[in-house]
Predict the structure of ABC transporter ATP-binding protein.
Amino acid sequence: MGDHGTLLSVTPVPTQPALRTSGLCKDFRGFRAVDTVDLEVAEGSIHALVGPNGAGKTTLFNLLSGFLGVSAGRIALFGRDITGLQPEQIAHLGVARSFQITSLFENLTPIEHVELALQGMTSEGYSFWRSHRSMHKFRPRAEELVEEVGLTSMAHRPAGLLAYGQKRALEMALVSALDPRVLLLDEPTAGMGMEDIDRTIELVRRIATGRTVVFVDHNMHVVGSLADRVTVLQAGTVLAEGTYDEVRNDERVVTAYLGEADHA
Ligand SMILES: Nc1ncnc2c1ncn2[C@@H]1O[C@H](COP(=O)(O)OP(=O)(O)OP(=O)(O)O)[C@@H](O)[C@H]1O
């Protein structure tokens, strides 16, 4: 080994997973909805959480984003313990979350929504009474984000007029505006027709560039198209994990889903 001088004193930091849970549990009055889950999400990956209804996917999302407190176990974000932090603290560390249903302001346009989101990211914080001029500095970036999600033609129309798929696209622009390192997407294609689904797949791919994405989706076409890795949950525990092809051929997974179909 050559002499690297002072560089030798710098200990290389091994790459930490974007998210890691160890022994994560959540109890609701004695009912264990998330049961000893060890999850590892690699930095830069797109990771899907799937499983039959009631498997604990949403609860796990709520734990990761701090909306629910853990009953046991730990959560680490890039190696930093975030267990017990409040949602806004976790958001501040670069984790953004989309919801299945987001409340948009019916009278504000997509551009205005995105401008508000961008303003919220600055030290100025959200302020509804700020002058138009101050908001205008966010206009170019807002236009870019609105274009990225395919809403340019609706950019200046009230959000109340947007079709369902367009509202979900606007949501995507809002989470992009937060420029998160880790993005948690809760059923990004729920309730969409085929055309919107394929557009959303493309959108998630684009937004995922340089980021880590964890998403929940029931649509296996979406999971197969997007996910680098898939974790299958059942009754709060990890049933299987691997690539999409690995898990979909796993007999336990097939059985779990057939079980669900039986009860549908
Ligand atoms: N606040 C709560 N109080 C009591 N039980 C809850 C609560 N939230 C979730 N549960 C229960 O925990 C289990 C897991 O629910 P969760 O919503 O996490 O499942 P899921 O995998 O997201 O299901 P779905 O695919 O239907 O959205 C379910 O049995 C649910 O009834």
